[in-house]
Amino acid sequence: MATNIGIMDSAYFVGRSEILAWINSTLQLNLCKVEDACSGAVHCQLLDAAHPGMVPMHKVNFDAKNEYDMIQNYKVLQDVFNKLKITKHIEVSKLVKGRPLDNLEFMQWMKRYCDSVNSGLHHNYNPVERREVCKGGKETSKKSAQSQASTKASTTARPHSSHNARRNDGSSAANARNQAPKVTSTRPSSAGGPAYDEQITGLKLSVDSLEKERDFYFAKLRDIEMLCQIPEIEQSPVVAAIQKILYATDDDGTAVAEAQAMISGGQNEAEQLSPIAEASEEKSCSETRKRKIIANLDFDAAGTTNLSPRQRLSDVSDVHCSESPLMTC
């Protein structure tokens, strides 16, 4: 079973129309948009179709309108996930907003999972009967049946209208010619309706993806800003240059040039301060040498005090012999 699948899996390339056709045929509904299933009730029944009897359908609310009722449906779905040991994470906060992209991705995963259970076959499953025990389930079934009946009536009315038009006499044919511009003018609107809906849906998906990308890069910039506010590095020229670019209001490229000037100015100051640092190092080295000389003298004095009087006289005589070239020892 496909509980966790990658984002590049073929399941996430299934089209919106195929997803809607699968939902409507499995549950005998008449959804027009994938985001119409954002309440979570459809997901619960799809899982009930894949695992009959696992979902407590009496807790599912098909009449959920606010986020609180929708969250209750997703809690039922999560409990069933836990029973079936499905590790898929449900992003409830995004789904209840009704965003097309988030709902499409989750429904694509649902289709992949349900297809992996018994090859997607649901034997002896009556979705209308199972929906009757839900809150608002009967009303949902009635609306779906009415919409399906109206769709069938509209499709059957077209052949009758064309048949009656052929049986008209010459006067009715003249009237038909007069009314022909009206018919042709209304056809593009009826034919262009689904095309416009698809275009609007595509624009919504692009907007959702752009919002996700914007939030991602905004979070990155916020992390950089917080890092620059650390007291240990806040006074650094590099940090000041980064903040200069972050807080720039103009988009003419001057902020980058000023930031580069700030970094180069900080490097020049460091080079000017380097001779002072060398002098301090030399001073510390000379002080270290003095301490070593004093320590050696103290060590020699301590050694002299420990010698006997005879050894001291021999050392003095050695010194006299070595210092005077006229004396021979």
From TrEMBL:
* Amino acid composition bias (Low complexity), ranges on this chain: 143-157
Q: Name one Pfam family in it.
A: CH
Keywords, comma-separated and alphabetical = Cell cycle, Cell division, Cytoplasm, Cytoskeleton, Microtubule, Mitosis
Q: Where is the composition biased (Basic and acidic residues)?
A: 132-142
Matching entries from PROSITE patterns are given as: CH, EB1_C
Family assignment from sequence similarity:
Belongs to the MAPRE family.
Q: What is this protein's name?
A: Putative microtubule-associated protein RP/EB
